């Protein structure tokens, strides 16, 4: 509360979600370009996609429901879809999710109803996207949020009060050199998100404590990924259980 009352955004702790969009993935779609050729070959067997879904879905709440639950940081991975000719971009995690445009509109509707809420959209993985795809995605972002977009600036210069006065509600982080062409795209280095890549709870906690103590206290935001990550053998042993039962509860 003291941090909130001071008005300095860098002092706030925001809740975030991992692979934020993957509350639904399309079993009928092709396997995403984020997967290996071996997985793509296996996915020709219909049962394989059903198993993939168990390990690809990381949320059970829509964007709106996550926002209502207090989530303000969204981890976003996006891709074009093979065979599409309209430059449409989709969320992706093994399998394709909803269109990015639909997700952005859901978020914008919430922000319009709650003009003092500030959110972070972290576009950190791009697959099968050329310059035309990036331009299409950035145009979608502009169309969705318009004047709500916050121009990139010094982190320390930002306060909640200044954002409210400017009616800025959305910070877009874009982990691609394309960010340099648009003032409202923040570079990915401004929001590092170190990843433990472990199935061990003890190793995860140690990693989070270490990265927090070593982070630069100025110049950037910071994401603590409090998640366990399955390995191939984890999935092989937990085919029936899936991500939620095998790792998340633990």
From TrEMBL:
Residues 9-175 form the Phosphatidylinositol-specific phospholipase C X domain. InterPro entries: PI-PLC_domain (IPR051057), PLC-like_Pdiesterase_TIM-brl (IPR017946), PLCXD1/2/3 (IPR042158), PLipase_C_PInositol-sp_X_dom (IPR000909). It comes from the Eukaryota. One of its GO terms (molecular function) is phosphoric diester hydrolase activity. CDD domains: PI-PLCXD1c (cd08616). Transmembrane segments: none annotated. One of its GO terms (biological process) is lipid metabolic process. Gene3D superfamilies: Phosphatidylinositol (PI) phosphodiesterase. SMART domains: PLCXc. PANTHER family: PI-PLC X DOMAIN-CONTAINING PROTEIN 2, PTHR13593. This is Phosphatidylinositol-specific phospholipase C X domain-containing protein. It comes from Myodes glareolus.
């Amino acid at each position: 509360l003291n941090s909130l009352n001071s008005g300095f955004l860098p002092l706030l702790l925001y809740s975030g979600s991992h692979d934020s969009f993957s509350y639904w993935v399309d079993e009928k779609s092709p396997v995403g370009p984020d997967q290996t050729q071996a997985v793509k070959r296996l996915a020709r067997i219909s049962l394989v996609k059903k198993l993939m879904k168990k390990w690809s879905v990381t949320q059970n709440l829509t964007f709106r429901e996550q926002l209502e639950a207090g989530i303000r940081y969204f981890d976003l991975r996006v891709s074009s879809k093979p065979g599409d000719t309209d430059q449409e971009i989709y969320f992706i995690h093994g399998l394709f999710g909803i269109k990015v445009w639909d997700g952005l509109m859901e978020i914008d509707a919430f922000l319009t109803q709650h003009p003092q809420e500030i959110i972070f959209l972290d576009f950190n993985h791009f697959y099968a996207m050329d310059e035309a795809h990036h331009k299409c995605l950035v145009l979608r972002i502009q169309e969705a949020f318009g004047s709500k977009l916050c121009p990139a600036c010094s982190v320390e210069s930002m306060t909640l009060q200044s954002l409210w006065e400017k009616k800025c509600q959305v910070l877009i982080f874009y982990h691609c050199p394309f960010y340099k062409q648009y003032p409202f795209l923040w570079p990915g280095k401004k929001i590092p998100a170190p990843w433990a890549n472990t199935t061990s709870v003890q190793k995860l906690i140690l990693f989070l404590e270490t990265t927090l103590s070593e982070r630069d206290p100025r110049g950037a935001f910071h994401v603590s990924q409090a998640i366990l990550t399955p390995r191939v053998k984890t999935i092989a042993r937990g085919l029936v259980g899936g991500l939620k039962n095998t790792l998340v509860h633990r």
